[in-house]
Amino acid sequence: MTIPNIITIGRLILVPFVIMMIMQERWGTAFVLFAIAGISDGIDGFIARHFDMRSELGSYIDPLADKSLLVSIYVSLAIVGVIPSWLAIVVVSRDAMIVAAVLLSWVMDRRVAIKPLLVSKLNTGAQIGFAAFALAANAYGVDLAGLEDVAMVTVAALTVASAGAYLGGWLRHMTG
Known about the structure:
The chain is built from 6 helices and no strands. The protein is mainly alpha-helical. This is CDP-diacylglycerol--glycerol-3-phosphate 3-phosphatidyltransferase.
C-alpha cells in the first residue's frame, strides 16, 4: 500500500460525505470537502510521479475516485435542483458508456486500453470547474453574471465530444 493509494482511498471515503452535505444543503461543508478531494487528487498524483510510487492498484482506484466524486456530485446537484437533470444525464451517460465499452471488450477478449485524450482532460476540467462553481454559488453566493448557461453548454458539449472520441477509438479497436 503506497501513500498515494492511501490518499486516493481517503478521497473515495469522502464521496458519501460530500453527497450527504449536498443533500442536506450544507453547501459550505460540501464545497470544502470537494476542495479537499481535489487537492488530494493533485497531491497523490504528485507523490506517485515524483517519488516513484505508481502502482497498478493506483492506476485503477485514482480514476474510480475521480469519477465517483464527479458523477455523484452531478447526480446530487440535479436531485436537489441546483443543475438541470439533462446535464447530470449527459455526464453519467458518458461514463456509463465508457464502462460498458470496456466491459464488453473484456467479455469479447479484446481488451482495450483507455488512455486520457486531450478532449477528455478538457472535459474533466470543465466538469470539475462547473461542480466547484455550483457548490460555491450556493455556499458563498458566487455569481457568474449569467454565464451559468454557457458553462453548462460547454460542459455538455465537451462531455459529448469526449464520449464520441472514446467511442470512435473503441469501435476502431473492436472492428480492426
